[in-house]
Structure formats: C-alpha cells, structure tokens
Design brief:
- Helix 3 runs antiparallel to helix 5.
- The chain is mainly α.
- Helices cover 61% and strands 0% of the residues.
Length: 110
C-alpha cells in the first residue's frame, strides 16, 4: 500500500488528474477490496471511517460523511494542492502510528 502511495507522491499529476483526492480515495478503496478478495495480508487504514479517517478527524475537528478526501480538500488552505496536504497528513499519521510510536509519547492525563 505505502509503495503505491509513494508512486502517487512522485507523479501526482499522472495518478490524480485535476488533483482530486477523491480519485486517490477510490484507488485506495479498490486496492483494499482486491487485497481482501485475494486474502493478502496487507493492512490498510484508508476505508472511509477507517483508522486514517479517524486520526484525521481528530486533527480537523470532525469527519465528513463524504470521507477523508473531502475533509482534506475542505481544509486545504489556498496555495498547497490537496495532494500535498494528503501526503503531509500521511507522513504525520505514519510517524504517530508506527510500531513503538505510542511508547514514545507521554501518557495523557484523564
């Protein structure tokens, strides 16, 4: 999954005509369906409402029922392309959810 995303990062114009993250969301959902159909062990967090969407919702003060692509496009400031914002969020998500990352964080007081 992440190898595919790195290909998209290198050539976003080829993968995402018009810069739409909705196309990327559709690609990732299709990838996840193919992985599930073929019983391949490749965990993926990009379902609408999945782990990435929940993580993103915590940073953007809520989730859209239209999915994480809409959330990012809606919150992208003028200037950066939504694809750039997606990869910025993806890098932060991967860093925070990497094995051992939770042990590096301080516990949150209730």
């Amino acid at each position: 999954m992440y190898d595919l995303l790195e290909q998209v990062r290198l050539r976003p114009g080829m993968w995402l005509p018009g810069g739409s993250l909705h196309r990327l969301q559709a690609i990732l959902i299709g990838y996840q369906v193919a992985v599930a159909v073929h019983s391949v062990a490749d965990p993926c967090d990009f379902w609408p409402g999945g782990d990435f969407a929940q993580w993103l919702g915590e940073r953007l003060d809520g989730n859209s029922p239209l999915g994480w692509a809409s959330d990012i496009e809606r919150h992208t400031p003028v200037g950066p392309a939504p694809a750039q914002e997606f990869f910025r969020f993806l890098d932060a998500y991967r860093q925070e959810t990497a094995p051992g990352a939770a042990a590096d964080r301080l516990p949150v007081e209730p």
